[in-house]
């Protein structure tokens, strides 16, 4: 089915000027960038976004990282966009990521792993709504 997923190009990637390089991989995979903006996440936004990880030992580090430099938030559209983008990103830990994936090519570590992508349709809808209003998404 035609789906939308939420993507973040994370601080480790924006700092190294890799926004275009990441977008090239996204577009080459057949995903369409239907919304995109560069923002500096607030602590509040990062804590809300990662609320499911609140009890994890790395939560504080994760939030600090996400607000350490600009990020690019995006909505990606395509056939099976949610699963397809997770394939294109590669495993969370770049050490386990497959050849050609974004994380294999660009990620520095499990924490500084260059991109985020929604894990399911319900989370995609919630994550998109946190950062975009309907009229900002142009399919
Ligand atoms: P993401 O897909 O954005 O969702 C949760 C994030 O937590 C994940 O990517 C990783 O960047 C981060 N994360 C997962 N495990 C660890 C870890 N062991 N140490 C630091 N960050 C982690």
TrEMBL record:
<feature type="binding site">
    <location>
        <position position="58"/>
    </location>
    <ligand>
        <name>ATP</name>
    </ligand>
</feature>
<keyword id="KW-0479">Metal-binding</keyword>
<dbReference type="GO" id="GO:0005737">
    <property type="term" value="C:cytoplasm"/>
</dbReference>
<keyword id="KW-0963">Cytoplasm</keyword>
<dbReference type="GO" id="GO:0006241">
    <property type="term" value="P:CTP biosynthetic process"/>
</dbReference>
<dbReference type="GO" id="GO:0005524">
    <property type="term" value="F:ATP binding"/>
</dbReference>
<dbReference type="Pfam" id="PF00334">
    <property type="entry name" value="NDK"/>
</dbReference>
<dbReference type="GO" id="GO:0004550">
    <property type="term" value="F:nucleoside diphosphate kinase activity"/>
</dbReference>
<dbReference type="GO" id="GO:0006228">
    <property type="term" value="P:UTP biosynthetic process"/>
</dbReference>
<dbReference type="InterPro" id="IPR001564">
    <property type="entry name" value="Nucleoside_diP_kinase"/>
</dbReference>
<feature type="binding site">
    <location>
        <position position="113"/>
    </location>
    <ligand>
        <name>ATP</name>
    </ligand>
</feature>
<feature type="binding site">
    <location>
        <position position="10"/>
    </location>
    <ligand>
        <name>ATP</name>
    </ligand>
</feature>
<keyword id="KW-0418">Kinase</keyword>
<keyword id="KW-0546">Nucleotide metabolism</keyword>
<dbReference type="GO" id="GO:0006183">
    <property type="term" value="P:GTP biosynthetic process"/>
</dbReference>
<feature type="active site" description="Pros-phosphohistidine intermediate">
    <location>
        <position position="116"/>
    </location>
</feature>
<keyword id="KW-0067">ATP-binding</keyword>
<keyword id="KW-0547">Nucleotide-binding</keyword>
<dbReference type="InterPro" id="IPR036850">
    <property type="entry name" value="NDK-like_dom_sf"/>
</dbReference>
<dbReference type="InterPro" id="IPR034907">
    <property type="entry name" value="NDK-like_dom"/>
</dbReference>
<keyword id="KW-0597">Phosphoprotein</keyword>
<comment type="function">
    <text>Major role in the synthesis of nucleoside triphosphates other than ATP. The ATP gamma phosphate is transferred to the NDP beta phosphate via a ping-pong mechanism, using a phosphorylated active-site intermediate.</text>
</comment>
<feature type="binding site">
    <location>
        <position position="103"/>
    </location>
    <ligand>
        <name>ATP</name>
    </ligand>
</feature>
<keyword id="KW-0808">Transferase</keyword>
<comment type="subunit">
    <text>Homotetramer.</text>
</comment>
<dbReference type="GO" id="GO:0046872">
    <property type="term" value="F:metal ion binding"/>
</dbReference>
<feature type="binding site">
    <location>
        <position position="86"/>
    </location>
    <ligand>
        <name>ATP</name>
    </ligand>
</feature>
<comment type="similarity">
    <text>Belongs to the NDK family.</text>
</comment>
<keyword id="KW-0460">Magnesium</keyword>
<feature type="domain" description="Nucleoside diphosphate kinase-like">
    <location>
        <begin position="2"/>
        <end position="139"/>
    </location>
</feature>
<feature type="binding site">
    <location>
        <position position="92"/>
    </location>
    <ligand>
        <name>ATP</name>
    </ligand>
</feature>
<protein>
    <recommendedName>
        <fullName>Nucleoside diphosphate kinase</fullName>
        <ecNumber>2.7.4.6</ecNumber>
    </recommendedName>
</protein>
């Amino acid at each position: 089915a035609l789906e939308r997923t939420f993507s973040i190009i994370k601080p480790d990637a924006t700092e190294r000027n890799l926004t275009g390089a990441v977008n090239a991989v996204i577009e080459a995979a057949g995903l369409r960038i239907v919304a995109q903006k560069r923002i500096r996440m607030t602590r509040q936004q990062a804590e809300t976004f990662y609320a499911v990880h609140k009890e994890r030992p790395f939560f504080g580090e994760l939030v600090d990282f996400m607000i350490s430099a600009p990020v690019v938030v995006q909505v990606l559209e395509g056939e099976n966009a949610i699963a397809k983008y997770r394939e294109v990103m590669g495993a969370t830990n770049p050490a386990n990521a497959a050849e050609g994936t974004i994380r294999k090519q660009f990620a520095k570590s499990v924490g500084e792993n260059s991109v985020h992508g929604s894990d399911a349709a319900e989370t995609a809808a919630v994550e998109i709504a946190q950062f975009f209003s309907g009229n900002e998404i142009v399919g």
